[in-house]
């Protein structure tokens, strides 16, 4: 699985003019299931992003995860958005190929699984809408953007 994490001051997803998911401070997580991915990759990706220390502590160093944003145990939000285009391959020309992306059925299954697991482990989880035409609004804090990849054999 692939993900792009963006440290957010705030973020929201709009579908057909209506906000379907919104967070304040936290992480916007753009996630893509690839061919060969399973729940194992989803679990590893989730564990990594929940513990990734990319938020500043009182000294201004990246020492806090989304789960301990204020140092007092308060969590930031997660806004999880499916984005199959993270599987784009442009090595063969100027038009992206998406053959590396999971099938729509597998992509939905793994996205739904990822969201369910995130909700079990984190108190504030919002989502976009799978396969919808979404507008994602983000105030990127920093900016901080981190790509993550968990290979199928990992």
Description of the structure:
With 154 residues, the chain is an alpha/beta fold. The chain has one domain: 3-Layer(bba) Sandwich (D-tyrosyl-trna(Tyr) Deacylase, Chain: A). Helices cover 20% and strands 37% of the residues. It has two helices and eight strands; from the N terminus they run βββαβββαββ. The protein has helices spanning 39-51, 104-121; strands at 2-15, 18-23, 26-32, 55-56, 62-64, 77-82, 125-127, 134-149. The strands form two sheets. Strands 1, 2, 3, 6, 7 and 8 form a six-stranded mixed β-sheet that branches. The radius of gyration is 15 Å and the shape is globular. The termini are close together.
Question: How is the topology of this model organized?
Answer:
Layout: E1 2-15, E2 18-23, E3 26-32, H1 39-51, E4 55-56, E5 62-64, E6 77-82, H2 104-121, E7 125-127, E8 134-149
Parallel strand pairs: 3-6, 6-7
Antiparallel strand pairs: 1-2, 1-3, 1-8, 4-5
Overview features:
154 residues, alpha/beta, D-tyrosyl-trna(Tyr) Deacylase, Chain: A, 6-stranded mixed sheet, two-stranded antiparallel sheet, 2 helices, 8 strands, 20% helix, globular
In short:
The chain has 154 residues and is an alpha/beta fold.
Q: Could you estimate the helical fraction of the residues in percent?
A: 10-25%
Quickly give the structural class.
alpha/beta
CATH fold-level name: D-tyrosyl-trna(Tyr) Deacylase, Chain: A
Taking all residues together, what is the mean pLDDT? 94
Provide the gyration radius in Å.
15 Å
Pattern of helices and strands? EEEHEEEHEE
Could you state the CATH homologous superfamily? D-tyrosyl-tRNA(Tyr) deacylase
| CATH architecture descriptor name | 3-Layer(bba) Sandwich
Number of distinct beta strands = 8
Strand content: 35-45%
Overall geometric form: globular
Q: Could you name the ranges where pLDDT drops below 50 across 5 or more consecutive residues?
A: none
Distance between the termini: 10 Å
CATH C-level: Alpha Beta
């Amino acid at each position: 699985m692939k993900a792009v994490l963006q440290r957010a001051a705030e973020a929201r997803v709009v579908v057909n003019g209506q906000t379907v998911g919104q967070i304040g401070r936290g992480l916007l997580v753009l996630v893509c299931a690839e061919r060969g991915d399973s729940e194992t990759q989803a679990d590893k990706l989730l564990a990594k992003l929940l513990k990734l220390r990319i938020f500043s502590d009182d000294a201004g160093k990246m020492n806090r995860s989304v789960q301990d944003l204020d140092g007092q145990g308060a969590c930031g939000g997660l806004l999880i958005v499916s984005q199959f285009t993270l599987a784009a391959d442009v090595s063969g020309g100027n038009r992206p190929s998406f053959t590396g992306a999971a099938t729509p059925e597998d992509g939905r299954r793994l996205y739904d699984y990822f969201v369910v697991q995130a909700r079990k482990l984190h108190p504030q989880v919002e989502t976009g809408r799978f396969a919808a035409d979404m507008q994602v609004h983000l105030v990127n804090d920093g900016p901080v953007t981190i790509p993550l990849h968990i290979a199928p054999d990992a």
